[in-house]
Structure prediction request, 198 residues.
Amino acid sequence: MDSLKGFLELRYDELEKLNLAARIITDPLKAKTQHLNSIKKEGLIKAVTVCFCDIEGRLHTLDYDKNFFIESVDNLTFDGSSVRGFSELHESDLRLLVDWTSLTYLPSDVFGAGKVAVFANVASRDLKPYESDFRGRLQAYAAELEKTKGYTAYMAPEIEGFLMEGVDAEQSFNGDFKLITTGGYFHALPMDRLRQFI
Prediction:
């Protein structure tokens, strides 16, 4: 019996090199051409994860088979009525416009082998920017600031989390979480469980 096909697994130093090289390409059309060709040629990539945010900033991801993604990249749709704050059922089909400058090779120990990710902007059926896509609205605002005032805007997320008491605490939520510490990460002592976790 043949073994299952192996998929792309890269060491963290290799991921860093690939991702830094991908970030150098800032022109969207050039990025699309180069990254799409790379995905096509790399036989060990099996899937592309497309990410977008809802109106509350919650991250949503859709995994596409590589070949389907390549064939459908200019016509990716999703049901907007299933995302809180997006469209009503009668106008539910929304489009995803891939931001090729965001291509990221993913660590296989976290996301599984053979995956890359891209962010996408949400558009309506007629490809106009969707009013509830705050990522797209922020990009448009930054472009307007640059055009009218010469400002360059820099943005980044602040990732923050909380460590809860108990295994699978989020699955057994009963109305109240018990935090490992209430002092915050700056207040953790060397033997504190939060410090050990960090």
In short: Residues 134-149 form the longest helix (16 residues). The mean pLDDT is 86. The chain is about 30% helix and 20% strand.
